[in-house]
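On clarity, I found the account of how folds are encoded harder to follow than it need be. Since the whole study asks how a given chain folds, the encoding of that fold should be made plain. For the editor and my fellow referees, an illustration may be useful. An entry of this sort, consisting of the sequence and the corresponding backbone structure tokens, reads as follows:

:::
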Amino acid sequence: MRKFLAIVMVVALVLSLGVAAWAGPKWTFKMGHANPPDTPYDKLAHWFADAVYERTNGQVKINIFPSNQLGDWTETFELIQRGVVEMGFQIANAQYDPKLNFAYYMPYVVSNLEEAKEAYAPGGWAYDIIKDLWSAHGIKALAVYPIGMAGVSLKEVPPSPGDPTVDKGMKVRVMPLKACSMTYEALGYIATPIPYAECYSAIQTGIVDGQMGGPPFQAWQFRDVNKVWIQYNDYFEQHWIVMNQDLWNSLPADIQKVIQETAAEASATRWKQVETEDEHYRNVLKNEFGWTIVMLTQDELNACADRVRKLVWPKMKEMLGTELYTKIRLATFKE
């Protein structure tokens, strides 16, 4: 009898181990981003997914889709809103709400990395404002994912790049956001809204002379069709690690805690990378691809910022509304 019971217990143990071995994750999420595989962006996205999987003991599986496989940022914003895509390293899409311009592109809110940290890092004056803007559209903003200080890449150096009053006579692809068009027109360019997916071919075929919308890393992706980088610092590009709000609300508190803490850790890692990444890619473009790098003087940067604030910010006030605009103006003391 004892031998029979022992056999039963062994069989039960084997079966239980088999069930555990074959049990899949309790939650499986899709998470996309815009950058190519094996870039620092993609590697950190995979670290985030792997860390969440490990820290939840395999209960949460996040599948990463690089290179806009789930759609570009304008499309994935809506997909995350609806819960069709659960998570994202995402850009706020102001086409759904003009106030979301502040959550992504409002020119010259900050002028350098130090000011960007004061605004967008946890505890910064803009951090909670932006989280609330995401929340109003059914998206839980978990942590900011800093990208870098922006500028423009071109085929050749324009006339007086640091003087915004000089007509550059060059067409620049801008993001399909009104604020972007107004900013680059104020800087003396011919602003041409084009989706990012069509940007490379537009430069290649001569439809435009260059592109804006990100830091030197983005210019590196156009290394074969452009030859000049100008550091305008017109905005600090920041994406966010986000999740559908209803999905977030449905998760147990312990799972929420792991995802939130892991997102914050990824954000902190990224802030450290940003400190050196812009300079690294400027050097790569210059030394490996023969680009001309134009670093504007502080006086030139101030002139560009002053002109944009004078011409563009009053129109931004119409988009943002008086209450939000006043908060931004008081925080930056710039108008």
